[in-house]
Amino acid sequence: MTHQIMTDQIRIAVTGTPGSGKSTLARTIARKLDIPYIEADNLRWGPDWYVRSDDELRTMAQEQLQAPCWLFDGNYIVLREMAWPLCNIIIWLDYPIAVVWWRLLCRTLRRLFRGEVLWNGNRERWTYQLRMLRTFFVPIIRSHFAKRREYPALLSKYSDATIVVLHTPKEAQQWLESFLRH
Description:
Helix content: 55-70%
Structural class: alpha/beta
Radius of gyration: 16 Å
CATH architecture: 3-Layer(aba) Sandwich
Number of strands: 5
Largest sheet: 5 strands, parallel
CATH topology: Rossmann fold
Number of helices: 8
Order of helices and strands: HEHEHHEHEHHEH
Mean pLDDT: 86
Low-confidence stretches: 1-5
Strand order of the largest sheet: 2-3-1-4-5
């Protein structure tokens, strides 16, 4: 089976704790398969860190999710509820908390030091990140363990989709290589 045949109607979602590598994996797959990439954070965050409402998210995502093929990356419940029922593959990066925490820390520091432009012209700021230690990094730990409790039952509702659970970055790389060969 060639990628062209595979991608005619392929809809993939990549999910996991922030910092797990969702966007990196998702962008890689979308690029290799030459399919549209829908990044939830790009929809959620407007200029000057404006947080779009759930209604705005639904409106923005609606047209993109009607396409015959795409790759969706994100965790926002409102978008997940729209995307997952349409998916034929759902990938959950269920990495150990130490891996996620380290990746999140490295990513944040890299973005800060390099002044990387994120969604809609936003950049991470030192003052924001110092506040985030309390309001973001700690909830990430809670979110990580909540997903581990809730996702098996949640994913079981999508029996029409192929569910891929990856537990380590090495396992993800092996799966990706195998997936792209077929």
